[in-house]
Amino acid sequence: MSSRPVSLRSLIPAVFLPALIFETGMGALAPVLALSGRALGASVGTAGLVLALLGVGQILGDVPAGALAARLGDRTAMLIAAGVAAVTLTGCALANSVWELAIAVTATGATNAVFTLARQSYLTEVVPAGLRARALSTLGGMSRVGAFVGPFIGAAVLTGRPVRDIYWLALLCTAATAVVLLVVRDVTDPTTAHPTSRAPVTVRTVVRDHRRVFLTLGVAVLLVGSVRAARQTVLPLWAEHLGQSPSSTSVVFGIAGLVDTLTFYPSGQVMDRLGRLWIAVPSMLVLGLTMAALPLTHGLVSLTVVAMLMGFGNGIGSGILMTLGADVAPPKTRSQFLGVWRLCADSGSAGGPLVVSAAAALGSLAAGIAVMGGVGLLAAGALMRWVPRYSAFATTGTRVREKSVPEAAPAAAGVGDPANPPAGPPGGP
Asked: How far apart are CA 14 and CA 17, in angstroms?
């Protein structure tokens, strides 16, 4: 292990590079999953379900991922996930029926949960609290960069080739990720990294001991996840409603994705310097208001402007859920706690698009979009209410009040007992 102090630069080879490679593979995979199902004879509805199963697999894998990382360690858990992913992606490429593909895609989503949670848990442990938001927002930014770049690489690979070849690309990225994990050592700062207990603790115990967090701040996290995921659904659906061509819709989506990708690092700076609420609340307000405004657009120009604002709102919130999870996770059961935490976020991500789809099926897409805009405003209020109760880094004011947690203290030292938060929320931004 390195004896140098942890910095963002020192985290590039051990954390950000493997995350970028892995997310690029997943980013290349996502746009063509439905097409892969169609190539096997699936109906349009069934092909859409195949795409959704990637997220379902991640939800199913969140809690087991936390238990696995707690028992074996973050790096070992990721290497095991890479091995399993190699099998599942091979299964996707060789699938001869829709059901075989569906099972393999679901299992692939579960391995994605292990990768994401393990890196979050590792950064939570070794990164000083004063650098935490920048590190985790950058980790979230790697996912955004991969999701933006991956489809272009996938398009180049698939030129003149069958759709199933995209799985070999994802497999190559997974293998490259495993090689980086094996070759590059993790960075540990001996002045801040403290060993955590690996004693087996059941997830049920973690949920019981921290139920107040999950029933309050966890619900806010669920709302945030639902609004973020709904954004990816409402844009193409409303563009189609306006009669835009698929190519125009892709351009609008790409522009919004570029804005999203370019704003992740400044958000980490603000969260570390001023507090989490200064990003969490504006992010949800912008997303909620722009989503509510989307049904008011009537042409390509207005649609693009609103899409860019939605990308900005989503982009500045990069890493906020991981950062809040790091703030409140108990050191002794960090991985198990974060597994349940991610379950809250991923469940919201699955539920948001379902609300929009259900509204569209009932004949009122605009109403469904407006409802999700309201959920965004509700999420902002929930964050304003609960973040100061549980995170010592909600604002500069909460840092001053939390005398027992120095700003430069390691994440492993904790920020107080999440099960017994300080009474009364201080003021927001």
From this structure: 7
- What region, left, alpha or beta, does residue 423 occupy, with left being phi > 0 and alpha being psi -120 to 50 degrees? beta
Largest CA distance in the chain: 62
The predicted pLDDT at position 4 comes to 58
| The residue to which tokens 């570029």 are assigned | 258
Cα Rg, the chain, nearest whole Å? 21
Spatial contact of 313 and 290, defined as CB atoms under 8 Å apart: yes
Amino acid at 235: L
User: By three-state DSSP, how is residue 128 classified?
Assistant: strand
pTM of the entire predicted model: 0.82
SS3 272: helix
Tokens in use for 105?
A: 């895609």
Among 36, 169, 171, smallest CA distance to 95 is for 36
Alpha-carbon torsion 18, 23, 29, 33, what sign? positive
DSSP code of residue 31: G
Calculate the CA 306 to chain-centre distance: 22
- The ranges of the chain with pLDDT < 70 are 1-4, 44-45, 48, 188-200, 398-429
Nearest to 83 by CA among 62, 102, 61, 107: 107
- Give tens-digit pLDDT for 408-423: 333 333 444 444 444 4
Given phi > 0 = left and psi -120 to 50 = alpha, else beta, which region is 48? alpha
**Which is nearest to 429 in space by CA: 375, 390, 393?**
393
Identify whether the C-beta of residue 335 lies closer than 8 Å to the C-beta of residue 206.
no
Beta bridge partners of 187: 2
Cβ atoms of 352 and 368 within 8 Å: the answer is no
Cβ proximity of 264 and 20 under 8 Å: no
- Residue 332 DSSP symbol: G
Integer Cα distance of 194 and 175 in angstroms: 30
d(CA 426, CA 410): 23
Structure token digits, residue 389: 């109760």
